[in-house]
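REQUEST FORM: STRUCTURE PREDICTION
Request ID: SP-0412
Submitted by: Lab K.M.
Chain count: 1
Length (residues): 236
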Amino acid sequence: MNKKIAYIFLLFGILFKSLSVSAAVYVNEKDVSTALKEEFLNEGYEDEIEIEFFGGKTNYEFLEGNAFKIMIVNLKIDETQERFSSQAEIYVDGQVKGKTELSGKFYKLAEVYVPSRNIKKGEIIKEGDLKPIKIRNGRIKNTHITDKEKLYNKEAKRMLKEGKLIVDNDVGEKIIIRKGDVITALYATPHMQISAKVEAQEDGAKGEKIELLNNKSQKHIYGEVIDAETVKVDIQ
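STATUS: Completed
RESULT:
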């Protein structure tokens, strides 16, 4: 009886060992991309990049094995065209199981700040309303504002959608005088200062010059916004 039990355990042991040895190994495009980025670093290319493959095999399945390693050799970088070529060797448990010729493009990445939520028109952008993301340099235009310090305390001039780049026309200084507001105009000269009630003909932020209407004289004038109730008009 003991011999039969021992024999059964032996069979189970052999079966378990067989199953553990025959575990499959999978290599995907992300694995190959990671190895390629490491080789870029080894070549002294320190910019963070995104890889796009045009040629070569980037997905593998090996029926037996425990661990894999990807070796990138003969990497050639064309910075002008942002292209690369190389060979990749796939090792499984120390043995070469696959080889391929890789080619494609690489894109430098930049960190930019975008809304972390939908920001409604008229809202003031505060800390916590923005989040950093990485995008390709080529997708950033001169009209984009990507620095968080240049966005904080600005007023949304239209709906700002979560995750979308902000264009300079999308934001501006906080509006403190609205069209139709009746405010005080200070007329200043080197020797005196007088005041009059005027009506704002357009919205204005602090420091901006806006059009005003003197209701008594019916004259249109321009003044610099000082605060929410005052504009300064220079007498010519």
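NOTES: Residues 5-12, 14-20 have pLDDT under 50 and may be disordered.
Reviewed by: T.R.
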